[in-house]
Amino acid sequence: MDPVNGNQDSNRMRRPAGPGGTPGTALLEVTGAACAAVSRTAEDTGDGRQAGAQGIFSGVSFSLHAGEVMDLAGPSGSGKSSLLTCIAQLNPRAWATLRLEGRDSSTFSFQEWRHLVAYLPQKSLLPGDTVADAIRLPYTFAASRRATAPTDDDIRVALDAVGLGDIELGRDPHDLSGGQSARVSMLRTMLTHPKVVLADEVDAGLDDDSSAIVARYMVRMAHQSGMAMIRVRHRPPDGLADVKAVLSGGTLTVEGGAHTPASDFPTGVVGGAADADDAPETPRFSEEGA
Amino acid sequence: MSIVVNLTSAMDGGARLVADAADTATQQDVYDIDIWGILVALGLIVIATVISAFAQLGVEKSLPVAAVRAMIQLAAMGLILRWVIEQGTWWWVIALMVVMLAAAVQITMSRAKNVPKGLELSVFLTLATTMIAMVAVVVELIVRPTPWYSPRVVLPLAGMMLGNTVAATALAMSRFFEDMTERRDEVEMMLALGATPREASMPSIRSAMRLGLMPTVASLASAGIVTIPGMMAGQILAGNDPLIAAKYQFMVLAAISALTLIADAVILHLVYRKCFTKRDQYELIIRKKK
Lengths: 290, 290
Prior knowledge:
The structure holds two protein chains of two kinds.
Chain A: E1 28-35, H1 46-54, E2 57-64, E3 69-73, H2 80-87, E4 94-100, E5 103-104, H3 110-116, E6 117-120, H4 131-135, H5 152-161, H6 178-190, E7 196-200, H7 208-225, E8 228-232, E9 243-248, E10 251-255, H8 267-275, H9 286-289
Helix pairs in contact in A: 7-8
Chain B: H1 2-22, H2 35-54, H3 62-87, H4 90-111, H5 120-143, H6 151-182, H7 184-192, H8 197-222, H9 230-237, H10 242-271
Helix pairs in contact in B: 1-3, 1-6, 1-9, 4-5, 4-6, 5-6, 5-10, 6-8, 6-10, 7-8, 8-10, 9-10
């Protein structure tokens, strides 16, 4: 029940006590995440092993509360994607002690865990004959067969909300542009209503306007439904994050100084900020935007 | 590569023995090949080698070696079959089948390109399963020889089926692992959405099985019009009634269709897990061959 106990190393543990939230109990706790840098192909020798001995990162610990959005920054190659796949238990070279709502990850099946802690890959692949099929792909898997797939109306509303009003549900996903695919792929994950979303450069293939629309859509959804979110972003800070963390030299530094607990923050305000332009100048976020 | 073909042809030779056993009339029409005939056949190899050397095809060394090897293997198989048939005991039949099975596993592994290590047991189980199924159905249900283990019937048929399942199994494995390598991002995406390893492998399993069945369908379609398949040709050359030969050939083709598909299904369900770690993560380590 006490999530703080297991976390005594140098990495900062965040425990905001937002009035509207669940004080003290983190939604997601990551303790002692480590990733080795061994090449997948097993053909690389010398360099790969050296790097493997050092590891990409180790001893990474942090926690996130419901509704919190964390931006994960760091130089390229610092292991940002590896940390995200580590948290989704998708990375064969990475290990971590993970807890969701106080429950250890070992008490979930891997499929349940990934359904709840959803990694959203940078590459958007949309198997299926139509956009609607592509979005309902997760419901063909046993892990989410009990869940209700989004109806055509749900999908329509979601597509409209991210600037894809002109995409029909019956469209062949192969005909979509890179930016459109990226948004459909994002919706596919968001519509499964995970508790944690690990978004890996969702904005990489998007233009500035779409990127801002997508960011606001995702953050609004996180705040509304108490979803925690980690974003690795391709662009300058957009001021929507509650927490900023930097992964560099193998360790994670959480910059939580100017933090406002997400649960404090009325959803309407977020919606309002979202409707205004991309707003890094909003005072509330200014330090994180630096 | 040529060994299986050789084995199969050896068994075609054995088919003559089947013919002898099954029948009948015109034993005096069997034309033996004398030593001059063998020399003429060797002369053909010499001609092919000279052409190859002249055209710089680069097979002028491997071709005569393979030809001599084939001759020795076929002669050995002929002698062994003759001896086992003379013995007429069930344990020699079983022993020879086990030896053929062991050789078939080794040949399958050498034929399958770019597959992970440690598949021998899976291949053995696959080939053994299909071999037992073949003996049960084709020999005991269709041909019904007396005694039940009649080496003249069991061994040539087992050899032919084995030759085909070896080819099918090697092809299915190569194709499956190639497809899983190509689909790497898609597999990871599906795992991230909560798919089990099996669910994430299914598209590649289907693709490999489809590919494995195509040559069979093609051989069914062309049999009797474009080609007189080896077994039928052997029986007719051995002086058998061509209609009996045709019935045997059809039975063999039908059995091959079913058994290659069964072999593909069994091998792919035994090996797909090789693409994943114990934590249900995608990790495919391919052993590269030169």
